[in-house]
Amino acid sequence: GDYNGALRPQIHYSPPIDFMNDPNGMFLDANGTYHLYYQYNPTDIVAGNQHWGHATSRDLYTWENQKIAIYPGAEGEGIFSGSAVIDVNNTSGFFPNQTNGVVAMYTLNTAQEEVQDIAYSTDGGYTFTKYASNPVISINSTQFRDPKVLWYAPTKSWVAVISYAQDFVIGIFTSPNLTNWTHASNFSHAGLLGLQYECPNLVSLPMLKNASLAEPLDPANFASTDEMYILQISINPGAPQGGSISQYFPGTFNGTHFTTADAATRLTDFGKDNYAGQFFYNIPATSPQISIAWASNWEYAQLVPTGPLEDFRSFMTIPRLNVLANTTRSEYTLLSYPYPYSSLYTTPTPLANSSTLANTSILYDYSTTIPSGALSFSMNITSIPVANTTGTANFTFLSSITGEYVRGGVFLNGGNGGDTPVWLDRSHTYGFSNPFFTDKFSTSLWRDPDTQDFRLLGVLDRSILEVFVSNGERAGTMTFFPQGVLDTVILGTNDLNPGVQVSVELYGLRSTWA
Ligand code: FRU
């Protein structure tokens, strides 16, 4: 693949050519290599003829494309979404004298049915052999898919969550050996239904001891005794903003049953381009869990521009670290924060920064200093006291060639009880438009009156912007397709009242594909 095209993200994963959707089978191996598989049609730039593509990385940003890992066996078959685990103890019997055997569990889709199959790899996840006695779960349904497997240590069992998509049910299955599965319970009709449930994930997340800590990802802040799970369920179509989106439910899991902590529905991302996210297998349980999602939406994924140099469609989000925290006025909030990327900084100190940006802005032309077009920016807002805060902080990335831009910002409505609305806008990019390519996105969060500090962190990468607000209490993913390269950034503030301090930083990121 040619990764130089103007729309091709430079620190995000995208397939060499052709069509990609959901991340699949993600795991960390014992040598420290991360494996990403993905729904892949190697013969077209729309979905269909689904395979498992494969890529590997040591740092989750620098990816090496590998050979296709799992192929359909016959015309009309699709290797649909699923997951992978390392069978360290050889529970399956596939791996005598081996501790690094990998088992993938996925949905085999045909016109007649969707069943759950497995395939095993004795070379650490590069090549797979399909199990001779597939399927391992079959219920005579055409809408039964996306197994995500975890290891439940207290009962020494494998657990799979699988979607009965059009019944709005997530089935929980258990197995001693990955081949014989028993239905244990159902979790159903929770949250947003949309028209289908897809891609469930059940994962244990560390709880933060103190959500007001400035740096949530310091391992010292995790309470290892207070283990919680989330069940994440993607819905498509029928998201509130249209098309596909993911939601999560915090709760407890006892090996067979998942019980929600409350009746609330929480969205994983406030944008429209974050779907079918999956959590890596084999990340230590006391660490933040790492996720990657597909940065697109089924409403337009198969219609967006394919890039001038190479016909490919879709990118993944950057890897995110995830923990749970009790935040102001909301318990069990998912905090999602970028997996660290400071190794990609083009300079040790920021390319542009300002420690006090009071009712002014900095304009920085990055056309020559950041040839990748990938950058990171942050806006730190310190207000004393929060209740008196007024004003806005804003960012704009524009093309000096075409005048196109994407932008966003934060309203500091301290007087309204700390309500802090955040917005994103892609309406002024002209490479793609469509009734479903929603222009603007917003969210709100309550700022802790005692914490005062507030941070917005963003990663811009040619045709995708991801923002992380208030230590990841809200995350927003937005793709866009400009006709001209974005090369200028404006970071600014308006109407700040005295006492509000805004400092900004801008770092260039080097391409991991160059
Ligand atoms: C979600 C999904 C899954 C399915 C896969 C097929 O985007 O529809 O439910 O397994 O894509 O590519």
TrEMBL record:
PANTHER family: EXOINULINASE INUD (AFU_ORTHOLOGUE AFUA_5G00480), INVERTASE-RELATED
GO biological process terms held by the UniProt record: sucrose catabolic process
Family that this chain belongs to: Belongs to the glycosyl hydrolase 32 family.
GO molecular function: sucrose alpha-glucosidase activity
Protein name: Glycoside hydrolase family 32 protein
Keyword Methyltransferase: no
Domain Glycosyl hydrolase family 32 C-terminal: 424-485
This protein's GO CC annotations: fungal-type vacuole
SUPFAM superfamilies: Arabinanase/levansucrase/invertase, Concanavalin A-like lectins/glucanases
Ranges where the Glycosyl hydrolase family 32 N-terminal domain occurs: 12-326
Domain of life: Eukaryota
Record keywords: Glycosidase, Hydrolase, Signal
The keyword Signal appears for this protein: yes
UniProt cross-references to PROSITE patterns, sorted A to Z: GLYCOSYL_HYDROL_F32
Pfam families, A to Z: Glyco_hydro_32C, Glyco_hydro_32N
Coiled-coil residues: none
